[in-house]
Design brief:
The protein is of the alpha+beta class. 45% of the residues lie in helices and 15% in strands. A four-stranded antiparallel β-sheet has the order 4-5-1-6. Strands 2-3 form a two-stranded antiparallel ribbon. The N and C termini lie far apart (46 Å).
C-alpha cells in the first residue's frame, strides 16, 4: 500500500476527533504498545499471512531465509556459537513493516465497534458512539477481542503501557465507571499530541519572541515574497519541532507574533 510518515495518521486521527466532537458524538481512543512482540512472531505464520496478502512468495522466502539463518549472539563482548530460530523479525529490514501489517490483518477484523489503526509496532483503537457510555462499551468490547486474538498468535501485550484517551470529562468518566481505569486527557500519538477540552496546547510561548525576530530578519531580505515565505515556513516549523513532538501553530500564535 501507500507509504506514509508517522505524523500523517496521527494528524488524521486528531482531525477525526475534532469532527466527531463537532458532530455531537463521543470518542475514546486506546493506545497499545507492543514493541517487543515482533520478537515473538512465528515465521511460518507471518509468511502465510503475507503471501495471502499478495506478496510474492519469492520475496517472502528470501526474507524468511535471512530471518531464520545462522546468527551470532554477542553479550558484553562475548560471542556465542551460531544459533538459528523460527521467531522474530529483524529490526531494520525494509520489508518488516509490511510483514507486520499483514500479520495484524486478522486482528484488525476483530474490531466490530471501533476502527483499528496500526503503524509499525503501535496499535490504536478508535471507538465512536452517540454517547460516552456507548463509546466506552464499544472500545471495551474490541480491546478484549484484539487481546484474545493476539494471545492466540503468541503475542504478549504490556497492559501497563496502555493508554485510553478521552477528549471530554464525560468520556473519561464513562470509561472509568465501566472499567475502573482512568482515561487520560492528553496523550502523544506518534509524536503528535492529542489534548482534551480545557487543556492548553503546550506550544512554548516563550519561543515566540525568537520566531518574531527571525521573521523580521527575513522580512528585510531583498528576496521575492515566495522565497521569503518558504524560508519563514521552514524555520517556523523547524523551531516548533521539539524532539519528536510536532506542535501545531495556531492563529493565536501568529497574532501574538504580529502584535
Amino acid at each position: 500500500g501507500k507509504h506514509i510518515g508517522a505524523a500523517a495518521p496521527a494528524c488524521a486521527t486528531r482531525a477525526a476527533v475534532e469532527n466527531v466532537s463537532w458532530a455531537g458524538k463521543s470518542v475514546l481512543i486506546a493506545f497499545w504498545d507492543w514493541s517487543k512482540c515482533d520478537d515473538r512472531i512465528n515465521h511460518h505464520l507471518v509468511a502465510s499471512r503475507t503471501v495471502a496478502s499478495s506478496c510474492p512468495d519469492t520475496v517472502m522466502n528470501m526474507s524468511m531465509g535471512v530471518y531464520s539463518g545462522p546468527k551470532f549472539i554477542r553479550v558484553h563482548g562475548a560471542v556465542a556459537r551460531t544459533v538459528q530460530g523460527h521467531h522474530g523479525l529483524i529490526a531494520g529490514c525494509s520489508f518488516s513493516k509490511d510483514y507486520l501489517k499483514s500479520f495484524l490483518r486478522p486482528v484488525e477484523k476483530q474490531c466490530k465497534q471501533s476502527t483499528f489503526r496500526d503503524y509499525v509496532d503501535d496499535m490504536v483503537l478508535i471507538a465512536i458512539g452517540d454517547t460516552p457510555v456507548q463509546a466506552a462499551m464499544g472500545l471495551t468490547h474490541d480491546l478484549g477481542a484484539v487481546r484474545e486474538a493476539l494471545q492466540k498468535d503468541n503475542m504478549v501485550l504490556n497492559d501497563k503501557k496502555q493508554q485510553v484517551y478521552g477528549p471530554t470529562e464525560a468520556e473519561r468518566r464513562a470509561w472509568q465507571d465501566l472499567t475502573g481505569e482512568q482515561a487520560t486527557p492528553q496523550v502523544k500519538d506518534l509524536g503528535i499530541w492529542h489534548y482534551g477540552d480545557g487543556y492548553k496546547e503546550p506550544l512554548p510561548d516563550e519561543q515566540l519572541h525568537m520566531l518574531r525576530a527571525t521573521a523580521m530578519r527575513i522580512g528585510t531580505m531583498p528576496n521575492p515574497k515566495e522565497k521569503k515565505a518558504t524560508m519563514a515556513g521552514a524555520i517556523l516549523y523547524g523551531r516548533c519541532l521539539n524532539g519528536q513532538e510536532a506542535l501545531f501553530v495556531t492563529t493565536r500564535h501568529f497574532q501574538n507574533m504580529r502584535a
